Amino acid sequence: MKKQFLAAAVILSSLAATAQTYQGTVGRTLAESKEWWPAPVRPPQGAPNVLLVLLDDVGFGASSAFGGLINTPTFDSLAANGLRYTNFHTAAICAPTRAALLTGRNQHFVHMGGFAHYFSSAGFPGWDGRIPSSSGTIAEVLKNAGYNTFAVGKYGVTPDEDTSNAGPFDYWPSGKGFEHFFGFLGSQTDQYKPALAEDNVNIQPDGRHFSEQLTDKAISYIARQQKAAPGKPFFLYYAPAATHAPHQVPADWRDKYKGQFDDGWDVYRQKVFANQKRLGIIPANATLPARNPRIKAWNSLSPDEQKLYARFFEVYAAYLTYTDYQVGRVVNYLKSINQLDNTLIYVVIGDNGASKEGTDEGVVSAKQTPRGNKNLTRAEIAKYNEENIALIGTPESDANYPLGWAQATNTPFKFWKQDAHAEGGTRNPLIVFYPKKITDKGALRTQYGYVTDILPTTLEVTGVPFPESIRGIKQDTLQGTSLAYSFDNAKAASRHNEQYYYIFGSRAVYKDGWKAAVAHHPDFIDLNEFADTRHEVKRDYDKEEWELYNLNEDFNEQNNLAKKYPEKLAELKQQFEEDAKRYHIYPFIDWEDVFTGKLINAQKIKR
């Protein structure tokens, strides 16, 4: 009886997973019946493994793979044997980017217009922070097709009120298709004391650097799976906390760049800009935007300021190189088990542009900032930072570099993370590696892309069909476009031709090379700074001035054409209006709404 019960359970489970209709005959007796078993779920013949690497808070001009001065040999190698996409985009902040990346649908459409956190999620369709089951993730789709699925690192799209050991777990990685997870559920964490979870349990960290722990876990997942089912494809989502603040790095890495950035951020920008031209990453006739007026010229800083600010960036650079090393450990493991050439690898270098959250002075300790102590003056912050320069990068610090380095690592673009109106907030490097499909090794691709394109690209390359339903739930149409058409054709016209952006009032819309954009809070750097002045910076959305750019001729947005082409601007503004309704961007929500308490939801407090 027990054996028969188990067999029936297997059939029911298989039917639920594959949506197959039972085709046997159930009679009154066994003699009158005909057994039937659903076909086992198997991936397409020859389907590759998939490794999706997503870094955090890395500007376009940081890594050596895209002309930066920070060594990233693993990324350089993958790029030299794959493709570098120079016109790829993110949502300008972490959770919206990750939701769009994982689902292949626009961020507001999957309810992630802001963070999944309690303080900024809201009770509206585009904002409640809960990815619907009708928008299955890449993990759910691949698992449905017979892949094993793992995630390590930062998840960032689980509502805060669901993160205890009591769950519910529907919005944890396990509820979204990942069979194993090791990492943290929020937006940032300490690298030595991370808020760790494994599968469906919050656990204690072991004291090692988080990147080392998650890499060990990723390799162990692959090793265990391949031993049990050699050759069975897997999907690994590798999303370290790096290089989001706090910038903490092991001691033996901390001084690898000592003295290398003493020339400062102005010289860094010039060197990177020249590298990018030499590599063909930017147009030969491109010009470097002027330094943002908020940022001081490096040569105007005092010697103590220069010493301090250079140290901030030495540590950040070490952090990025250390992260590249940890990714390299996974790549080298795949090579050692003869799976590297059978793995489709994406490296998205940043979930948004470089972070402006380090304030003008930089952060050594979060308690010694305007947000941590409203009574501090800038002079007192500077004095504390200079006196505690040795703490930068250590487990005792909350290090984040000052704003000047954010502009430098965003070379050649303007503005930063959170600025959805600007390429500096939304354009991030993409590397695609897959030797079986990519023959134009080391080449550049300039086709427009967005994070929603990763899922459809994966389906086309793996041969996995897009499912009509997952676990019996009908699936919404994907909104991304496969990039596979560009693998062997550098001159192919872009197929992703339209995209909106919106982060806390900053917004834009792209269509066929043209872009209309408006900066809602162009000078907002620090949350506390904004909170203190919120009543002074209130803006009327309808009165804000839109700008217009032809990115085909002006890729880094230096020539505002709004007055020259008012009809084109009106057309794009109308497109944004249509997108706002179609994808649930409305109502507009701003940081101001967070600080004034408009998003406080009594029902959430009770949950």
From TrEMBL:
One of its GO terms (molecular function) is hydrolase activity. Keywords: Calcium, Hydrolase, Metal-binding, Signal. The keyword Transferase does not apply. InterPro entries: Alkaline_phosphatase_core_sf, Sulfatase, Sulfatase_CS, Sulfatase_N. Residues 48-464 form the Sulfatase N-terminal domain. Residues 1-19 form the signal peptide. This is Arylsulfatase. It comes from Chitinophaga silvisoli.
